[in-house]
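Onboarding guide, step 5: your first structure request.
Type a short instruction followed by the sequence, for example:

Predict the 3D structure of this protein.
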Amino acid sequence: MSVNSAALLVSLDTLLVSLSILLVNLHFTREFYGFTREFALFTREFGHFTREFALFTREFGHFTREFCCFTREF
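The system replies with structure tokens like these:
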């Protein structure tokens, strides 16, 4: 095997390793993007839940106040 052939094989091997690393990085990037998107959806839904829970708590506070006023009358 000549020096040029050996250098070409080393270059091709290096290129294949670089492409493999790139594909792995792209895979993890895509997975991380999917996770980030799912986490954003979860956060939005949790925000809706928190807002609804705050409204419920406020209404329950109004009910409790009215109930206390009602029980004082007796």
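Each response can be followed by summary notes, for example: The two ends are 106 Å apart (CA to CA).
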